[in-house]
Amino acid sequence: MQAISKTPPAPLPIADSFGIREGFTLIKTLDEFRAAIKEDGQRIRMKPGVYRAEKTDPPMTIPVRNAEAGKDGRLPQNRQEHIFAVNGSNNYFDLRGVVIETPVSVQSKLSGKAHVSDSWHINGASNIFEGGYFRNTTDMPYPRYRVTENEFEVCNDNNTFLNCIFVIKGSVPYGYSDFYGKGGPNFGRLNKHSFMSIQNANNTRLIGCQVYMQSFGHCVHFHKVDGVRIEKCLFTGTLRPTNDVFKEIVGRAREYDFHIMYRGKRPIPRDQMIPLTEDGVRSYGGDKNIAVIDTTVERLRGCFQLLCVGDVTLENVTVLEAGDFSYDVSSGDKGKVVMKNCRGDIAYSPLFNLTRGPVPRNAFYEVTILSPAEGVQPTSRTSLGTICGDRCTFIFHDGTTRPLPRQVNRLDCGGKKGLTNSTVTNHTMATLILNERVRKCVVRSVGPVEDHGEQNTVIRIEPETAADSKRGR
What we know:
- The protein is mainly β.
- It has a domain at about 300-473.
- The protein contains five helices and 45 strands.
- The chain has a 23-stranded parallel beta sheet that branches. Strands 5-6-9-12-15-18-25-28-31 form a nine-stranded mixed beta sheet, with no helix packed on it.
- Strand 22 and strand 23 form a beta hairpin.
């Protein structure tokens, strides 16, 4: 299979000598670690080495935190099966030089029930995991194994992952995006495997982490959370040319005569690029106060799909080679969206997809358009995408190093939801198409503007200089 994916770094060589910080207790086995994650208030240094899980922790049922009680006055319950249950709080786990493996053979010991089985459940609060290398290994042939729903599910507040590496593998089948379904039996057996679910847990932090997604599932997804900070991270996924699918002799695509079956039978298109993962940073409802800073997200389906009910901040974020779209970020009128000094290319898919959530209001979007990598060929889906909003500000800077093809260098303003009382400043050569739903907007543009709307002011501007860009003109 031709997969376009970044190779994870190898773990550091196991050192004979290693540091133990003052006040930390050394542990040397996975059994000791399994016991330590059940206790509170510790500082643990684990001996560097490779540790492979061979057993599971007992299942649990716990109340869902930060949830509303039912009519009977009881909180909803979270049924859990897991390899590791982190039930302790206020711990610091120094895992520098430590590799922890969760093989599919051990994941298969769990039931596989939806929203029950995860490799790790973080049930304690205010824990720090530093420097660990967490990876999945496929030690059984398909279809004999199944995988957990998420590698990590965070179920309590104020947990931090610092300078960790995660290598996520194991979903089956793999290689077809969602052509054959993404929930339930659909058109054949499906096991998704995501990196991290944050469920009714507030103030989770991923700082300096790297996630290598080689599995059909989301990278990070949120469910009714208040506060997430992702800073100085790399989330990188996997793409596949559709032309490569037609080379298969056996497999799901061959079984269905190279047709997509999910959401209507139709031929697999040629000359497209599909994501082999789900979304990069994804909200599912009731989420607010999401901040992503100094982070790169690449080769995931929707790199950012954040339809929230509170503030969202993306600052100094880069999106590359999105599998479906780069940015879909909105809080309607329930929160402030600020995208500042962000970047993105339009390699295979639209940059903006402001079509799914509530109409953004009083939002700020600043994006520098980048050239795709050398050798990248645009597809029929390549474009700047679609924007909408009310009283919003959009600023596009030109960071290209070579001209983009005219047929893809286009931005649809308005879409089906409209663009009103907003300003668009386009420092690029892109063509802006203002549809009939664009009204009372001020558009300043270097590139051409097609105005099909009403009461808009269109102003031609000169390309900005480097000094202009630094001043944020």
